[in-house]
Amino acid sequence: MTISLRSRTKHFCMFMLLAVFFCLFASDSAFAQRNVCYECKTINAADAASCKSCNLALNLCLDCNTENPADKDFCSKCNASLAEMRILGRIDPKTREELKLGQSERAKIEKELMKVGYLLEKKPEDEEKLIFKKAMLLHRMNFFSREAETWREFLKKFPETKKKSTANAYLAIALRKWGYLLYSQKNKDEAAQLFVEATEANTMDAEAWSWLGRVKMEAGKNDEAKAAYLKSLEANPGDKVAINFLKRLKATIPAELLTPRADDKK
User: What is the pTM of this model?
Assistant: First the structure.
């Protein structure tokens, strides 16, 4: 029990230390301190990569081990953001590894998002590829609203892209999940709008049609609910949820929609 308590105390202290580092060095005013060696306090040239007194790397990329000039915000080799690395680099490597600092899935995605943002400014000719990558990163993060907004931007800027069908499919998923969050917060009107947009993005998204049917039914718009549930069943024949609600709404269900397609049974 004592060992466990000491371990937890050590971890807590290290997290507090990291928070203090962020407060001290992550602000805009810290820019002027980048060329000051934190080991020997020597003031170096603004674009120095290492300390002239002790040779300590002033702006080391922890991803590719490149020593960058102190005045750079992104790695010259791999384009990774250096802001967090300047802070993590001051923590003992063994401690960083033990606490898995900067190694969570979310931290990795956020780092990739910062890189994409930088590259969008640096390489505008790669905008289509980079916005697509940004949207996929947000998909991994389950940040549905930002993901949807990014897919909208992608499709607006590149309406003839070869990835249009893929982008629309992901947009529908993001809109549907965003809509469900609003629905769960009792914001059913806005949720309904997102469900409609999801079905427009991908007419075969059965879940989007099903949720649209749900909000329409709860709003007392039974005819619209029937239509939505039938669309859901067309996209996913044999779906028990859609069939159940259609029966409650006393809708006529085509016989061919009552059982799954042959391909779906396999």
Answer: 0.76
